[in-house]
Amino acid sequence: MTHYVPSTDGVEVAVHDSGGPGRPLLAVHGTGMVGLMWEPVLRLLPADTVRVLYVDLRGHGASRTPDGVSFLDRSMVADLTAVVDALAPEGAWVAAHSMGAATALLTSLERPAAFAKLFAFEPIIFRREPDFGGAQPEFLEGVRRRKATFASRQEAIDRYGLRPPLDVLDPETLAAYVEHGFVEDPAGGVRLACPPDVEARVFAEFLDRGFDRLGEVSVPVLVGAGSIRRPDRVGEPPWPEIAERIPTAVYHCFEGTDHFGPFAAGRLSSMAEFLRDFFDS
Fold this sequence. Notes:
There is one protein chain. The protein is α/β, with parallel strands linked by helices. It has a single domain (about 1-135, about 205-280), classed as Alpha/Beta hydrolase fold, catalytic domain (Rossmann fold). Helix content is about 30%, strand content about 20%. The strands form 2 sheets. It has an 8-stranded mixed sheet, sandwiched between helices. Strands 7-9-8 form a 3-stranded antiparallel sheet. Helix 2 (about 75-85) crosses helix 3 (about 100-110) and helix 5 (about 155-160) crosses helix 6 (about 170-180). The radius of gyration is 17 Å and the shape is globular. About 45% of the residues are buried. The mean pLDDT is about 95.
């Protein structure tokens, strides 16, 4: 079932609930993506051990987002904090990617008892400095030019499956993204649930003040990262430094993957096994 959880700015956060008796596991997406991209991985965990809550933050997926809202990191944290308070107030596990991983880390500061363990894959919580690129104007312009409409979901799958960066996705995760990351277009066909202009705003606004608070994180964290560097970034990826700044964190490099490592083709079973071992340890 899908819950709609009230947040700030009139946002209603969509949470897709797998149900079941297990421990709550919050699955949080990166910029432009959807929580249910995690489903092909997390459904491989023992069904009686987890109740997965797939979260769509403001501007994404099925969440209801008024025009003109903020996408600062504290706004995303307000969304996830609202979900925690409503559905998983204590002892949840978290699997989060990119912007969602940064949001989860900062949410743990607001609700220290909420998370028992947190898997954060390439959390976007670094300084926005020239030596790492950040959200450069040319990058944002490229995001705004992203194709937003397709004649069908199958057309979207065919296009994404042949072009970077989403060509690395496992067919199941790509299908989950297209199924839940698009809505019907009144003009015909389908369109992105997170429009390109909103995605660009998230990239431009999100990281506001979180990096200097990493030392306050107290939940056990595994910071994961791929070994393949993204071509749209300059400088060295900061993931090991992020792990070093978190007193309770360890770092793990997933060789042969890039920024979409948790969703990469041929990796779903091994990623699920890795997460099971991490959460059970």
